[in-house]
Amino acid sequence: MIKQLAWNMFKNTGDINSYLEFAEIEKQEREKLNVNEEKKKPNLGENIRNRYKIEEVIMGTIKTKGIVIAENNMGDFDKMLTLLTPSGKISCSAKGSRRPKSQLMAGSQFLCFGDYMLFKGTNTYTLNSSEPLEIFYNIRIDLDKLQYAAHITKIIQDVTDENQNTYKIMQLYLNTLYVISETEMDLEFVVSIFKLRLMCLLGFSPRIQKCTECGREDNLNYFSFKDNGFKCEVCSRQDTGAVQISPSTKKAIQYITMAPAKKLYSFEISEENKKQLSLVS
């Protein structure tokens, strides 16, 4: 009403003060209208947060290579699996994997290595899909090989954890399973090599360059369990737990410690030296 009166006064008289009064009223009304429109607008920050929550659900799917190191039946048709991946152990549920026509049946078997698609929930992982790459069939049909494979798997379970960099451990484990499955090497010898190399990966590498006591680099014919390394003949007299080893066993220990992963099992030693290596490992 006041706005209209001010405009009429300016229109009839040309009074500049009437125009200023009209302009001021119009400005106030415009500002009030803008405030009301801002209140009606959705909260942009809230929209962004909600969008990120949706993306977190989408990004909750994880694809990784892994090998099944444990399986336990759960309910009538489900399994709880433990996978060893390059980034540590992951426990996940495989729903319906025990059904005869389940697509997860092969990938949820013990010692199956493959590509796994996991969905990360609030507290647990769920297996969505799997693509087996190697099932180590020869281990499954040979009771002796299965026994040794289960033995090294138990060791792997004990020394690994979640959110741990286990790439090299997994590489050693897979190489060892391949040797057990595809070759006829002495299984006790294979396990001895595996244990000694695993100790190195875990940070317990034996001291093999010189005597652990005096630093001497020759005549290192004894291995000390107390000092985890070689000892010379003189220093070994003061260590009742040191055992004498042959030059071949000494070279085998040095080779296992420093050899490339792919060539770890590419050597042989005599039966007597194998017994000494088994004792050391």
Q: What's the topology here?
A:
Blueprint: H1 2-13, H2 16-40, H3 44-59, E1 61-74, E2 78-85, E3 88-94, E4 113-120, E5 125-134, H4 137-140, H5 143-159, H6 167-182, H7 187-201, E6 222-224, E7 229-231, H8 233-236, E8 243-244, H9 247-258, H10 271-280
Parallel strand pairs: 3-5
Antiparallel strand pairs: 1-2, 1-4, 2-3, 4-5, 6-7, 6-8
Helix pairs in contact: 1-2, 5-6, 6-7, 7-10, 9-10
Give a quick account of the main beta sheet: strands, pairing sense, barrel closure. Answer: 5 strands, mixed, barrel
Strand content: 15-25%
Compute the number of strand runs.
Answer: 8
State the shape.
Answer: elongated
Structural class: alpha+beta
Ends apart, CA distance between termini:
100 Å
What is the succession of H and E elements? HHHEEEEEHHHHEEHEHH
Query: Spatial order of the strands in the main sheet?
Result: 1-2-3-5-4
Report the radius of gyration as a whole number of Å: 36 Å
**Fraction in helix:** 40-55%
Question: What assembly state would you assign to the polypeptide chains in this entry?
Answer: single chain
Averaged pLDDT, please?
82
Low-confidence stretches: 40-58
How many individual helices?
10
